[in-house]
Prior knowledge:
Elements: H1 9-29, H2 32-39, H3 44-72, H4 76-95, H5 99-127, H6 133-162, H7 166-172, H8 174-187, H9 213-228, H10 233-241, H11 250-271, H12 276-296, H13 300-328, H14 334-362, H15 365-390, H16 393-406
Helix pairs in contact: 1-4, 1-6, 1-8, 3-5, 3-14, 4-5, 4-7, 4-8, 5-14, 6-11, 6-13, 9-13, 9-14, 9-15, 11-12, 11-13, 12-13, 12-15, 14-15
Amino acid sequence: MKKAESIPRGVWALGFVSMFMDVSSEVIHSLLPIFLLSVLQTSVTAIGFLEGIAEGAVLVTKMFSGTLSDWLGKRKGLALLGYGMAAVTKPLFAIAGSYAMVFAARLLDRVGKGIRGAPRDAMIADLVPQELRGASYGLRQTLDTVGALTGPLLATVLMLATGGNFRLVFWVAVVPAIVSVAILAQFVDEPLQTAPGKEHVAMRWSQLGEFSAAFWSILVVGSIFTLARFSEAFLVLRASDVGIAEVYLPMTMAAMYTTYTVFAYPAGWLSDRLDRHVVVAIGAAVLMSADLVLARISGVVGLFAGIGLWGLHMGLTQGVFAALVADASPAHLRGTAFGLFNLAGGIALLVASLVAGRVWDNVGPAATFYVGAAFAAVALIGLLLQRPSNFDTKSQRSNLTLVSRQK
Length: 407
């Protein structure tokens, strides 16, 4: 396995930035669905609408921030803006007294995530050679999920220590958000690869023609995949549905992030040696299995089995999808490529969460996960059909490495 210490310091720092912000975010997000249901008396449809709009805003905003980072030839400033916005919104959850205020706080928080996401992902590609790309994305994703795992565990401890005081727990979540922004400001340098140059010009519609058929195929399959992967808020709601007490509900997210964390780096490492599409196809099959288990559960054992499988699929796909986008996009349009990919995914996630909330309220929890399984099956079929004719990523990476050496 490629040694993690060979990965540049900037990638490690970006990983720790993600880790601390995810500690903060997941303390709040692991409790937010139940806070909305039990304290603010909202419906599951309203929660689905909130999650769909919020997560969709992340991915849509990435489109514009990615393009802007290509145009400016700089990425760190946008990343700082995005992480700073997320940190500023955290206190709003603690003082929220209505669904509208939570909606505004969640939306602004996710817009901040959208602003930072594409420039950060493009920055990683700028910082590392291609043969370390999968491992580097896997490392950042692993550190990100360490934070996402720590957040729900911390939320559980804090809920027990405070007697279930949601608002006090939300205030504690402000601290790691501040740490995250400080690390980014101090320890991440602007990559030399993104210094302004003549190739950095304003985005034009004609530039869409510079993206290959491989990129557009990745975008289509990724969007279908996102339809199957609605918001993780529905995992928390499913746990509540089977009888998990409020103070222990964050443990469901901790279980999901445990398997996510364990498999994110190995999946990235493996994708540097195999066709990345094989790894993503396995992830689609695992997601379909997770949805089927979650649809049929009647107790705690089945719940955690399904949630564990959900985390496994995340580990197998999220970092690898990022590497696929980087592989298939021109270097000078890499931020735009991540933006386009996430724009399509944002629209899909909005639709997925809206549908999931409506199906949950009108048909039932099991039907929600059966719908997700159906979309996962479609994504898997799409991956299997496109791979033989459209992709030979292993040889493509070898050819690119050869070209870079000749230069």
